[in-house]
Amino acid sequence: MEICRQDDALQISDLDPFLAELLRQIPESTNPDGAPAAEARLFSRPSAEKKICAEWKSYVEPELRRLFRSATETVTDDLTQLNGNEKSLSNCILHIPIAHADAWLNTLNQARLVIAAKYKFSDEELNDHDRSPIGSRRDLGLFQVNFYGFLQEFILREISG
Amino acid sequence: MSAVNAGQLEKGSTSTVEAPIKEKETRGEEELDVPWQVVVHNDPVNLMTYVTMVFQRVFGYPREKAERHMLEVHQKGRSILWSGVREPAEFYVQQLHGYLLLATLEKVG
User: Fold this and answer.
1) What is the extent of the structural domain holding A62?
2) Which of A8, A39, A88, B31 is the S-S candidate for B27 at Cβ 3.0 to 4.6 Å?
């Protein structure tokens, strides 16, 4: 896989089927359904005071849900470029417009937080970037967290000049 | 997301409006605008570079100051990013949650 900046877009090329599948799974990975810990992490308590939390749930949380959904929809639309024959992936280039960079950063962060909450990764596991091979769904989850983090780092570097 | 200039808000929050003593006695604690602080807590998932960028955007802090706060969060578990009256503090916490940072609103003291 190669990733580079090309004018007003980031380009990911030379994708192998495995990494392409991980990219396709970004939107789905943001879904905290069935994992209360993940839901609690995406919508964390703003205060120890009950009154503030109650107001927050009524007025702020719906806004946050809209914000996260909008970002995820932008990423989902960009990822339609990866639809098609797996054999043609090597020639496929994923263009991410710089204008979509914030949506990607947000969605990748949602996905990383949800996966990490679902698998309850420890600090040690999250800092172990050389862990291999992938022998379980949990290992794959950790790989996803690191891979999505790598994409975040690249996007951050490009938008911060 | 647009960012409110923290410097302006800090300046604004230091001014006090003198109210009649009688009125003060009948006000609730919230109305007295007790100082609040915006606290960001450590989360091992969020990237350090991402947290720094968020502090720069939300508070308008220069990179060096944003990095100092990021490192404080990373090393001490939490950092106080801003303090002042409640309304802008709530706004900051809302923005930080929009970036998926662990942030809380706390009364000072």
Assistant:
1) 2-159
2) B31
